[in-house]
Amino acid sequence: MNIFRLIGDMSHLLAIVLLLLKMWKTRSCAGISGKSQILFALVFATRYLDLFTAFISAYNSTMKLFFISTSLVTVYLMYFKFRATYDANHDTFRLEFLVVPVGGLAFLVNHNFSPLEILWTFSIYLESVAILPQLFMMSKTGEAETITSHYLFALGSYRALYILNWVFRYYFEGFFDLIAVVAGCVQTILYCDFFYLYITKVLKGKKLSLPA
Amino acid sequence: CNSSHPKDEL
């Protein structure tokens, strides 16, 4: 555990808490892509199966359980409790266009052809593109609430901080996982346009609106 | 590559 990973994990945690708080306080999930949230639930459910096969640390198990459970709660809130506020008309990204190619790639390019490893690889690849339905939705509506922007900034920062963690681990521990690094870089690149808008608009007190 | 399970990262 190094400082980049710890701050990255805390940023990830903060993102999820921000999203749940936004939905709970406003009793609404307007502006949030349910499809991205379904993908995140799928990401956690397929990645953390090693909860049942190995124990790494109390921190590790607690975080995994937190991510799995909160992602399921988020999907439940969007599709059941606050369904009336869900903006389905703008959430039109086709999930099969992500899940099918990512599943195929996980079968072809992995570290080890075993069920657990393939599911982990699928999860890593899927996470890198899981935000696309949310970004697609924002490009359709042309704007995002400020709290949603904070959520996305925390969520994007987490993987960017993991990249610093991987640089650190490569130099000081000799640890290098090509699949995680490439997918993590792809994931971070997808956020760059949003990061730019967040820094130039939201941090200056303006609402995030996209150029037409 | 350190590739085997279990994974210590989240």
Automatic annotation (TrEMBL), chain A:
The keyword Phosphoprotein does not apply. It is found in: Endoplasmic reticulum membrane. The chain crosses the membrane at residues 65-82, 94-113, 119-139, 178-199. Its main location: endoplasmic reticulum. Pfam families: ER_lumen_recept. The keyword Cell membrane does not apply. This is ER lumen protein-retaining receptor. It comes from Aplysia californica (California sea hare). The gene is LOC101850190.
